Amino acid sequence: MLAAEQRIRLSRGDITTLEVDAIVNAANSSLLGGGGVDGAIHRAAGPELLAECRTIGGCPAGEARLTRGYRLPASYVIHTVGPVWHGGKAGEQEKLRSCYRSCLAIAQSRNFQSVAFPAIATGIYGFPRQQAAGIAVATASSHLAANEFPSLVVFVCFDPAMLETYQAVLGRDA
Length: 174
Ligand code: AR6
Known about the structure:
alpha/beta; six-stranded mixed sheet
């Protein structure tokens, strides 16, 4: 097993194009779709994804739920619900940590090799980017140090500024 650091990769672009075992969706608690990455994932996966999401009955912030990937190149989607940013004194950091932990626990329990994450909560939900990237990397590193799966975590950055933020947090380029 590679060291935790070597099992983290950065990628720039659209998460819906990635051929991984699972991509993570930054959903809302209804799990019935929305804007941002959630909208892109539902568009690319097709209406079967929404149909499966309807059977789940929602998901509280900080937790995660698994569905199939349908028309996506990824086999599965792990839907998680980030915290809405209210200034940082309402438990937002712990909720975001819990999102990453919950998704990674599903990946471990299903023996997934590769899981790709968007920057959960940093768009419409307004979580500060640098703090969110720090939580993402720290939570993934501690999971990877203690677990065999996933073998690889990919952090997908939708824009160049987000890529720079993750590069700074990781102290390397890719
Ligand atoms: N691939 C990768 N990253 C993306 C993509 C994409 N195709 N599209 C956007 N991002 P957001 P949130 C980045 O707003 O803040 C939805 O309506 C984006 O640049 O998608 O958790 C849900 O239904 C940002 O860095 O999610 C919820 O109501 C990151 O993904 C709400 O938005 C997350 O931005 C969730 O808000």
